[in-house]
Specification:
It contains 10 helices and 13 strands. The protein has helices spanning 38-48, 63-68, 73-81, 110-115, 118-121, 149-160, 224-230, 242-249, 270-282, 288-298; strands at 7-11, 32-33, 36-37, 53-58, 99-103, 126-129, 133-137, 163-169, 179-183, 194-202, 213-221, 255-259, 262-266. Bound molecules: uridine 5'-triphosphate (UTP). Uridine 5'-triphosphate binds at residues 11-18, 28, 57, 104, 107-110, 112-113, 130-132, 268.
Length: 299
């Protein structure tokens, strides 16, 4: 039987240059979609999937991410003194010992960030979350179900084991900005959402792309990837690429892609961030009417 997924790595050491100057002193992962920072959505998704041990790969200027999940003594004492409920802080509570940070001193790429967590990951399969890719489950009652992305991946992992990445289809002209898979057999797994992966390419030219299925910020990987990363040189953009390391694992271990039944927002881009904010605001009972009225006025 496959070992359960208990640990998740959150690489949050990037510079967030596309959001400057907002991200000069605030980490990109702390930018809120409505009233929750991006990192909170990712942590909630991990917990829904049964993952409790959180490993943050951080860098300079990122301490507020860790503070977000700490006890805020003055705030809580003051709120309690004013008879205000602390329920709103519930998602920020972490069992002592379940949050570990490791520093990536220089942002040398996603692959390098993951490798920085090798001692904490140890000899177990683990999940990876890129918090700027916001994966939102369908609303309750949707015909495709309303489970989060990582939970869907963990369920698939229990069927096929090995390595899994989440993918989604994009228009062909967009493939050159992403990691792209070469698909093998499709429609596998209990609900047909699994595709065999035969190769991976980071940021291919449009005419050389093996498909329009892009890797979308969620992974379940076997610990052997750390040893591959160890010996790997720089790839696209002069960075140590996770995609290159994963590509070298294909053929040695099972490798599948999961098409997420849900919605994905690229919150690393400004337009994607606004789209996520509007979409989620329109789904919130406490503000949907107001936001709809504003949108009608603007339109
Ligand atoms: P991105 O390239 O999307 O993020 O990396 P970035 O570098 O922070 O943002 P821009 O492009 O300059 O605006 C994807 C994820 O990998 C992490 C980032 O924090 C983000 O979550 N990352 C990237 C690292 O942790 N270390 C790195 O060296 C690079």
């Amino acid at each position: 039987m496959a070992k359960p997924i208990r640990k998740a790595v959150f690489p949050v050491a990037g510079l967030g240059t596309r959001f400057l100057p907002a991200t000069k002193a605030i980490p990109k992962e702390m930018l809120p979609i409505i009233d929750r920072p991006l990192i909170q959505y990712a942590v909630d998704e991990a917990r829904e999937a049964g993952i409790e041990q959180l490993i943050f790969v951080t860098g300079r200027g990122k301490t507020s991410i860790v503070e977000h999940f700490d006890h805020a003594f003055e705030l809580e004492a003051t709120m309690t003194g004013r008879d205000k409920s602390l329920d709103v802080l519930e998602p920020t509570r972490i069992q002592p010992g379940n949050l570990v940070t490791v520093r990536q001193q220089v942002p040398m790429g996603l692959g390098h960030a993951i490798w920085c967590a090798r001692a904490i990951v140890g000899d177990e399969p683990f999940a990876i979350f890129l918090p700027d890719e916001l994966m939102i489950a369908h609303a309750a009652g949707h015909p495709s179900g309303s489970t989060g992305c990582m939970k869907q991946m963990v369920e698939a992992y229990e069927e096929v084991g090995g390595n899994l990445i989440s993918v989604l289809e994009v228009p062909e002209e967009e493939v050159s900005s992403y990691g792209v898979i070469a698909p093998g057999r499709r429609g596998l797994g209990r609900d047909g959402a699994l595709t065999e992966v035969t190769a991976l390419v980071e940021k291919p030219k449009r005419e050389e792309a093996p498909s329009n299925l892009i890797i979308s910020g969620r992974y379940i990987l076997q610990p052997e990837v750390m040893r591959v990363l160890e010996n790997q040189g720089k790839g696209a953009g002069g960075e140590i690429q996770l995609t290159d390391a994963m590509a070298r694992m294909i053929g040695q271990q099972p490798f599948h892609a999961v098409t997420f039944a849900g919605r994905r927002f690229d919150c690393g881009s400004k337009a994607g961030f606004v789209e996520a904010t509007l979409t989620l605001a329109l789904e919130r009972e406490d503000m949907a009417d107001d936001v709809r009225a504003i949108m009608q006025k603007l339109a």
